[in-house]
Amino acid sequence: MQVCVPHIPQELVTIGKSIDVQxxxxxxxxxxxxxxxxxxxxxIIREVGFRCDLCARCxxxxxxxxxxxxxxxxxxxxxxxxGVIEPAPYYELCDQHGNxxxxxxxxxxxxxxxxxxxxEKRCRIYEQRPLICRLYPYMLHLEADEDGxxxxxxxxxxxxxxxxxxxxxxEECEAIAREVRxxxxxxxxxKLEFFKAARKYFQKHGLKHVQSVYDREMRKINKGGQAKxxxxxxxxxxERMARE
Length: 244
Known about the structure:
The chain is an alpha+beta fold. Helix content is about 35%, strand content about 20%. The chain contains 6 helices and 12 strands. The protein has helices at about 20-35, 40-50, 70-80, 130-135, 170-205, 210-220; strands at about 1-5, 70, 85, 95, 100, 105, 120, 120-125, 140-145, 150-155, 230-235, 235-240. The strands form 4 sheets. Strands 4-5-11-12 form a 4-stranded mixed β-sheet. The radius of gyration is 18 Å and the shape is globular.
């Protein structure tokens, strides 16, 4: 489901832009998110009426690209198993030396494309699962459709899994809407803090974002190569290696 937003720049859904431009775009999306009517989101949640049928499809790469971890999620996951995280894909920046920078971590996936915590269609950390997993399939962010038109994305995987058009109480709809908005705002705040930290780090070390280097190094990674990735965490950066 999407509501068209014709005046939103295409760059809201691109990567590799300069730090200042990406900061401005993230800040604008946050402002638009905060202005999005609660009543509209609640109405969509009520209409969709999603109920999980335990198919576990949402926990696979076939249906979802990756599980991005907010810092509050990261703390819990590291206490559970620190070896299950990796730099989130779609790095935002790349310096002239070929080092990437990304705004957070994601959960690793297994060889079959399923989440690292999925076992026989059940989540091994269900009670401690990340917030985005708790809210799924509801969301509220700007995304481009197949034709490149940017609009609000409120539902993921509609009619592809789970059960729909179930009756959900007004109280539950309102609670879901609050949590969805809370997650999306936290995500954008984390991204903004990442860009602020990156700008400070780049200035201190004489670095600059170079799009041509970004493209070149991504081609290497896509062919199985490696590169350093600086992951934003607790206000600073942790050095990791890109996944193949």
